[in-house]
TrEMBL record:
It comes from the Eukaryota. Residues 1-26 have a biased composition (Basic and acidic residues). Residues 27-44 have a biased composition (Polar residues). This is Uncharacterized protein. Residues 1-61 are annotated as: Disordered. PANTHER family: NUCLEAR PORE COMPLEX PROTEIN NUP85 (PTHR38797:SF4), NUCLEAR PORE COMPLEX PROTEIN NUP85-RELATED (PTHR38797). It holds the Pfam family DUF3632.
Amino acid sequence: MENNHKTGEERLEEDVASRPKIELESSSRSADVASQLNKTVQSSLEEEESNPVKSEKHAPQSKFDLREVKATSLIEPAISILNIIETALNSASPGSASIAAQGLDLLCPPTKSRDIGDYIWILWTMFLDVAQALPHDSDKPGQGALVAILFELQQCAKGDVSLWGSEWRLWKDLPLLSNFMDETWTDPVRKDEIIDAQSARMWRNQNAFAARCVGAGVGEWAHFGIWQLRAALEESREADQAENQECLILVASEWVIHSGPRLLQWAQDEDKEPEPFDWGTDVATGTLFQGNPGLSHRRWKFWKDRFNEVSKDTALWSEGAIAAAREAVGSMAEAETRQGKEPA
């Protein structure tokens, strides 16, 4: 679709510059909605804590503090969005994701408002910022809860909205989320420099979240996973870039751990087709894999074999990379078993 060759962030910056207040219709109620949500969830927490059985079953294993994320989010309703997400992440209530989704829906301007596109873009920005801050292996609370909020948001019917030249169902289609992911997907691993520990950690967290979304059926961006699996497993290892190579393996493992069954299903579907899966050059193969682009069982098996090699090579790989590769192999074997296909 036409976007005048400007990124979503550039468009958002222009809109912010032209309008002192982004949320003309809903900013005045943002704090009230967030406050009410906090009270509702707190009530649920107190109820759960009064029941030892329920409290032990649903209690968070740790608390997530989003103050660092909030420190960089100076635009309302970003703070209110983060308050809602943070409260839900730290709630012991099994219904906290649904409550959070309702709160985010209430913050959203009417479908005919000129501000709705701004709100949606800011919302996805906050989701990504939070995802980068949450540990890749955190489930509930954590990244699993964040994906659950997206799923519950899809259940909130608000009507149709026209954005970027397309019609969307709010919130069933999660408007602009795929566009946002495409616009902001920037791999920090570069051949000409060594990635720092913080960037590597945030990149792994981001990929884990994206993979969880694909695995849960709330995201259709499997091509990101193919990019990361290709970079980690289909290219020769650079001996002088150990940190980068480890980051690639850790990131790639997240895709088969969290979205393996869906990737395998697409690979099996491709095996039934006479022509390669038509995803264009974005899913081209690396130099080590001799096969068609896209997803196929042959490519899946190649990835599994390569992960298996890493898991056994203690001379070249760190304990972290070996553990991740071993978990990836196990996840792939489990996906094969679940789909009734003999492990390769």
